[in-house]
């Protein structure tokens, strides 16, 4: 046993010495010579691609573009995959609009004037609740403003939840900046006698109004503000989404017979034990088995995926120059010719200076100059059954503004070549 231990110790010493020498050699710093300046510039230059490599890169880009076009074609024909809960809702599971009339106090002289008589009435009634009788004729409401308080209460909200409220001036106040909303009762539109929420809090307007000596500076709109979490739910609103005989109704946000049919087929495949029927272009009638939790049934309906149809619609907004074209927009054969007339009016000033010591007066004469130039018409040929990407390339080739594109789209629809609906905002 002793001989074996001595042999192991001697072997370890033999191995340790070379390792130590190797580590010592590695730890010794070595100075590397810097390459010549010409070699440094040569290393910094980007690599030059050959013609074969450039051709290969172009093929990859063309392949990627072709795949994108194929995905667009697939979306146009088969639709896009979405959850049913994202394009519709169960009947009965909706939000409720609440409203109330309140008072904002603490304004810095920017409140209502005597031209708003209901402000003095409201403050008098409010003070009377606390045993203080106030003569309306003596009320000076510079620091008070009458407001309308509104709130959107989602479905299934329990008592104690907090909601955001919107506060809007109903009189002639100049600003609600720095104001505090007094406790206000909010009721529903159908039952104005039953309190649903109580609202209170400091108003945030995100802007200001300032003026002096006829000058005025403003930012955003100072007569409407919000109170984040300013409404406390006192009573929940009954929400019924399951009707007699375990019946539910699912309504799409946008009417579409194609999407309704696809949704019915997807639900029948995912829920074979259910009775499912499409009633019209919006509503799907569902009956789930007895013993199934209504909440679980609603979750299964909303989580079902469907290939939603993409309508052929063009939305235009001439005020902002925004144009949104749907995926199923098609174009018939047409020729587009676009030209514009530009008119510029300038004024040249001529000054007539009298001779020295002639007792004459300097005369200034304005001479208007009117120039008109009409650009050459740009012509584009539209092939039959052109698609969205074809339309995008045509409009990009014409190099026209958004307002001109709107005029071209309207002219194409009037001619009958644009197979889509145009919605104006």
Report on this structure.
The protein has 425 residues and is α+β, with helices and mostly antiparallel strands. The protein has 3 domains: 81-92 and 240-308, Gyrase A, domain 2 (2-Layer Sandwich); 96-209 and 219-233, no CATH class; 313-424, no CATH class. 30% of the residues lie in helices and 33% in strands. The chain contains 9 helices and 23 strands. The chain has a 6-stranded antiparallel β-barrel. A 4-stranded antiparallel beta sheet has the order 2-11-13-12. Strands 16-15-23 form a 3-stranded mixed beta sheet, with helices on one face. The longest helix has 28 residues, at 51-78. The radius of gyration is 38 Å and the shape is flat.
How helical, in percent, are the residues?
25-40%
The largest sheet is: 6 strands, antiparallel, barrel
Terminal CA distance: 97 Å
Number of strands: 23
Q: How large is the count of helical segments?
A: 9
Instruction: Label the overall shape.
Output: flat
**Classification by helices and strands:** alpha+beta
Contiguous runs where pLDDT drops below 50 for at least 5 residues: 1-32, 341-345
Strand order of the largest sheet: 3-4-5-10-7-6
Rg from alpha-carbon coordinates: 38 Å
Q: What is the number of domains?
A: 3
Mean pLDDT: 76
Q: Report the sheet-strand fraction.
A: 25-35%
């Amino acid at each position: 046993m002793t001989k074996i231990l001595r042999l192991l110790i001697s072997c370890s010493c033999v191995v340790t010495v070379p390792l130590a020498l190797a580590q010592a050699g590695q730890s010794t710093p070595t100075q590397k010579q810097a390459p010549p300046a010409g070699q440094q510039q040569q290393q910094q230059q980007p690599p030059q691609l050959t013609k074969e490599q450039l051709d290969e890169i172009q093929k990859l880009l063309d392949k990627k573009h072709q795949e994108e076009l194929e995905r667009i074609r697939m979306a146009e024909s088969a639709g896009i995959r979405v959850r049913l809960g994202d394009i519709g809702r169960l009947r009965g599971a909706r939000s409720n609009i609440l409203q109330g009339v309140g008072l904002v106090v603490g304004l810095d002289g920017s409140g209502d004037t005597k031209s708003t008589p209901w402000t003095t009435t409201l403050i008098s009634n409010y003070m009377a609740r606390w045993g203080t009788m106030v003569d309306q004729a003596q009320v000076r409401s510079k620091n008070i403003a009458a407001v309308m308080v509104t709130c959107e209460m989602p479905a299934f909200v329990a008592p104690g939840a907090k909601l955001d409220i919107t506060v809007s001036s109903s009189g002639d106040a100049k600003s609600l900046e720095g104001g505090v909303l007094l406790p206000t009762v909010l009721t529903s539109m159908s039952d104005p006698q039953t309190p649903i929420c109580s609202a209170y809090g400091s108003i945030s307007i995100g802007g200001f109004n300032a003026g002096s000596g006829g000058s005025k500076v403003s930012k955003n709109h100072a007569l409407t503000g919000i109170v984040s979490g300013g409404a406390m739910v006192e009573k929940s609103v009954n929400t019924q989404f399951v009707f007699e005989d375990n019946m539910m109704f699912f309504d799409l946000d946008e009417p579409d017979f194609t999407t309704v049919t696809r949704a019915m087929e997807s639900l029948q495949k995912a829920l074979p034990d259910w009775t499912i029927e499409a009633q019209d272009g919006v509503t799907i009638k569902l009956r789930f088995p007895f013993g199934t939790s209504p909440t679980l049934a609603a979750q299964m309906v909303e989580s079902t995926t469907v290939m939603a149809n993409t309508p052929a619609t063009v939305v235009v907004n001439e005020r902002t120059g925004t144009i949104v074209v749907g995926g199923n927009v098609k174009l018939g054969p047409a020729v587009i010719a676009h030209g514009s007339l530009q008119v510029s009016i300038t004024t040249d000033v001529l000054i007539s200076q009298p001779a020295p010591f002639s007792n004459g007066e300097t005369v200034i004469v304005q001479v208007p100059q009117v120039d008109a130039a009409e650009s050459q018409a740009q012509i584009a040929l539209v092939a039959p059954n052109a698609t969205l990407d074809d339309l995008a390339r045509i409009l990009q080739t014409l190099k026209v503004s958004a307002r001109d594109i709107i005029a071209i789209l309207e002219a194409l629809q009037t001619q009958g070549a644009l197979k889509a609906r145009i919605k104006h905002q």
